[in-house]
Task: structure prediction
Amino acid sequence: MEKWAIGVFASIDAGLGVHLEVARQLGVPTVQIHGPHKINRTQSAAESFLKKCEQAGIRVTAVFGGFDGESYADIQTTARTVGLVPETTRAARLQEMKEIADFAKVLGSSTVALHIGFVPPDRNSTDYRKLLDTTRNLLDHLGKNSQQLNLETGQESADHLLEFIGDVARDNLFINFDPANMILYGTGDPIEALEKVGPYVRSVHCKDAKWAAPADRGKKWGTEVPLGEGDVGMETYLRTLHRLGYHGPLTIEREIAHEPERQKSDIGHAVRLLEGLREKILGAGG
Ligand code: MG
Result:
């Protein structure tokens, strides 16, 4: 595959992504998709989606898990509702993630990804140890499918994410790096974080954001903005990825699904921005 194949985050039926048709119109060769609801998570639905992708010349590079009951309304609600961390939903969501992984396998995707939730800060706590067990349980299922799990960044610092990955101690756990999330959640400078976790980065989001006011960081969201208009610094981001040897897909995220026309137009601009930077950094034909 070409280096830095551009992609977009797409949805089959749920989540913040664009429809596959929009990806086709944008002419991108790859998508990450948000795993569909249970009712659409069938072998035949996967085969039909795969056929549409093949007809459009689009490859699925990762399937993201997501669950009913998750809310990103504010940072506190996110911590309470997202991923495999909340205890009351953990067992059911673990089972769902395994089904999403099996769905991803039909799509030919060896990568499953996830916002696992806010990893508990205390490595000696029961909550932390239970999350380790749950993660290993999921990874062992993925291993049987020859799949890996890429953890979305943002909900913890780069250092704590590395501690967690080390403590899980499985060889199919990696990172989906999202620079804007480091800013939105206030968990660290995105470029410094990328340099720390670089060896584990197997997929990335191209998304941009502005920091919240210093007193609000980590308490209130920063602001997601069109690619190139935020505080990430897209050229520095791509140059850092290049230096770290990452040349996998560049997947654009623009989380304004409630404004589909603007979303499509912003993503179109983002595609052109990334194409320009790719040529500048890798050279023509990169
Ligand atoms: Mg992301």
The mean pLDDT is 95. Residues 152, 178, 181, 205, 207, 253 surround magnesium ion (CB under 6 Å). The radius of gyration is 18 Å.
